[in-house]
Amino acid sequence: MYITIDTSALIAVIGNEASKYKIIEITKGYSLCSPVSVHWEIGNAFSAMFKRRKISIELAKQALAVYREIPIKFIDVPLEKTLEITHTHNMYAYDAYLIQCAQQTSTSLLTLDKGLKVIAERMGISVLEIKS
User: Fold this and answer.
1) Which of 12, 32, 78, 126 has its CA 20 to 30 A from that of 40?
2) Is 111 within 8 Å of 9 (Cβ atoms)?
3) Is the pLDDT of residue 132 over 60?
4) What total number of domains does the chain contain?
5) Nearest-angstrom CA–CA distance, 23 and 19
6) CATH, residue 79
């Protein structure tokens, strides 16, 4: 059984954030999938951290090594469908790719992004919560 995992949850795990162990606990026994775009979103997240001087290149490389160890099945999602989602819900394409991935694979979505959570639930997608 699969879970669609988004960039926010992956960054929390590979960046050793407070929610790391809760995410690991929730995903035990499941396989992970994500749209192909998540791979590039990881790079974008680190570039944003560099701009804010929140992380060194050395720590980013260590985090990428951890990321490469996470078995994720990357799903190709149709661009036309995701554009419809972005238009209908006035959202960024990267978020729409995650919603489309969850719909396409009939999986729950694991995200720390509250805005994405709201839209996914509105669209009938089960969202896994990280409770504090």
Assistant:
1) 126
2) yes
3) no
4) 1
5) 6
6) 3.40.50.1010
